[in-house]
């Protein structure tokens, strides 16, 4: 049951659905021995986004977008793949996803000497779970959540109750309440789970830039 559920949740893109090309990969080892593929888009900017991607994406698919976005937003971007995705080894599941996020964060701080106070987490879809996990256990400058999940059961049954057998439970972590400084959520009318940045591209980019400017000034 667990393996079937993981295959449903982690919709790892198969080769042929995306184009492979030459990239300078960084490999980071997790506590359970998975080798996590990562790539650093370094623009020598004051803030660095650590991006936790959705369940149907990988670095190859995200690279062009974030090369352009990093210029528009004036940030560095650190991309990484969950276990089993792209060039990463291992099997994707909730715990291995959390372990990979923590390992990548620690690599950024301890090896690349990126200051914790300059790291902005960005979690999209299921990546919101990875981003929130990092924010709970590590120090960061801020966090962006796009199409975030409440929990797995909420997706399936629209329930707001927390049940013992639920998973990916962002709802019980109360991250918003714990934030020292909060900003009003950006809502895209007519937007769906995976197209928010496409429907209102300029407004979306302006909102991200505004939030990053806010972080630079606090």
From TrEMBL:
Residues 48-153 form the Serine aminopeptidase S33 domain. GO terms for molecular function: hydrolase activity. InterPro entries: AB_hydrolase_fold, Hydrolase_4. The keyword Metal-binding does not apply. It holds the Pfam family Hydrolase_4. SUPFAM superfamilies: alpha/beta-Hydrolases. It comes from the Eukaryota. Coiled coil: none annotated. Keywords: Hydrolase. This is Alpha/beta hydrolase. It comes from Plasmodium cynomolgi (strain B).
